[in-house]
């Protein structure tokens, strides 16, 4: 008989069970740890603020190491979030107490300048590095305070509101941009923003508040940059993006005339240069005179400005009927009369106010279809372009021009026409004869009433001889001559605007589509509340259809415009 006990078999399986239980335990532990990691990653994804790493610097010895880390992060992504905090006592501002810089990797360095008492050379060099863009909302203001308090120059500051405008977002403050772009709510309670930044020890809430401002600034920039150039990865196209925003570096985002400070003026150790101003041609007087032009039978043709009305009188092409409103009746039958909504648009008086916000104090003319494209249109699409010249106040004009960058960027990709690709090619030589005609037309256009009669007739003859098929000079002829291309044609030289126009003529449905693209962009980005009645994105297409029924436009022009011919 066997001496094996009944439970010996079960005892022999104990090591296997132990191994199995041990494996299950390790697996369970791994799953718990992995779950914690996943939850941690998920929380960081849900709340970007958890991705930052904050370092507080209170002495010079720690400064060098932190600056080196920031510089290393800037080697592939030359952008830093930038902000400053200070204390105001009894209405008097004290020196900047805290400087915040954050890299694209979420490394937030808080420099307690009130403790360090100076800005070390390594930090000065980083702030003065023109290749590293310092982003925030109104960063130039903070840079100015650093210059005043510590004599340090901060180069290449960039206001995020410019980039927000370029991609079609509202140019709002940092908290609102953080909410709309990052879906992150910042704590902007006044008790924090106005707290004692010179305290011996900063509270956790103060540290979080300060770090968040610099962190969200660079995160907002990264997302808006991708929206601006969505097809290409950021790291491979930093140069392209910087080229687009470079005109707005160190420029204050304000409501009237943008001022770009010279970098040298921010550094007290350098002799200041004169401040550079970007000037706009601002009109304080009314642009629309709303004078009336009548056909010989008294039918209203259109409203015109007083200078053009007086030109008809000087040329003895009409007679003055009334002084108020100033009315001129032609003594010859015009080529056409006002027809349909197109005709009524030109008959309707226009208001001297910003078409976006309604301001009546100062105006800037806005070419809805920019001249860099319009000047390459055929004559039939360049005449009667007042429909696409609207009045904007300086603030709205600035915002509109910034938003146009996005469309230019889109057209560059659509038409394989980089905005600066022609710069390496030699410019065509200027033709003196055409320049003479152009200058004569501009003189007649702008100063006809001041030019002596004999001289005026000579200038008119120059213009008339250029248009050999015409015997009588007219206002449209003068305006067309004033926009002549005066350089010798060169098939190897082609600007961005010219190539875009060529592409739309052949590949994208005609020039009416290019006009519609710009007009619709203006409507979408600016949301104008005071457009002239009957202003229409299809205006020129409708006008050409009317002219076609009158036999006043060629089949070739209709094809270039992309307007289908009406079959009889």
Brief characterization of the structure:
Helices cover 45% and strands 12% of the residues. It is of the alpha/beta class and 568 residues long. The radius of gyration is 33 Å and the shape is elongated.
Structural key phrases:
568 residues; alpha/beta; Nucleotidyltransferase, domain 5; 3 domains; 4-stranded mixed β-sheet; 45% helix; elongated; disordered N terminus; nuclease
Protein model, in words:
With 568 residues, the protein is of the alpha/beta class. It folds into three domains: 48-253, Nucleotidyltransferase, domain 5, CATH 3.30.420.10; 338-422 and 495-561, no CATH class; 432-482, no CATH class. The strands form five sheets. It has a six-stranded mixed sheet with strand order 1-6-5-2-7-8, sandwiched between helices. 45% of the residues lie in helices and 12% in strands.
Strand order in space, largest sheet:
1-6-5-2-7-8
Name the helicity range. Answer: 40-55%
The CATH superfamily of the largest domain bears the name Ribonuclease H-like superfamily/Ribonuclease H
The biggest sheet amounts to: 6 strands, mixed
GO biological process, one term: DNA recombination
Protein name: Exonuclease 3'-5' domain-containing protein 2
Organism: Glossina morsitans morsitans
Main location: mitochondrion
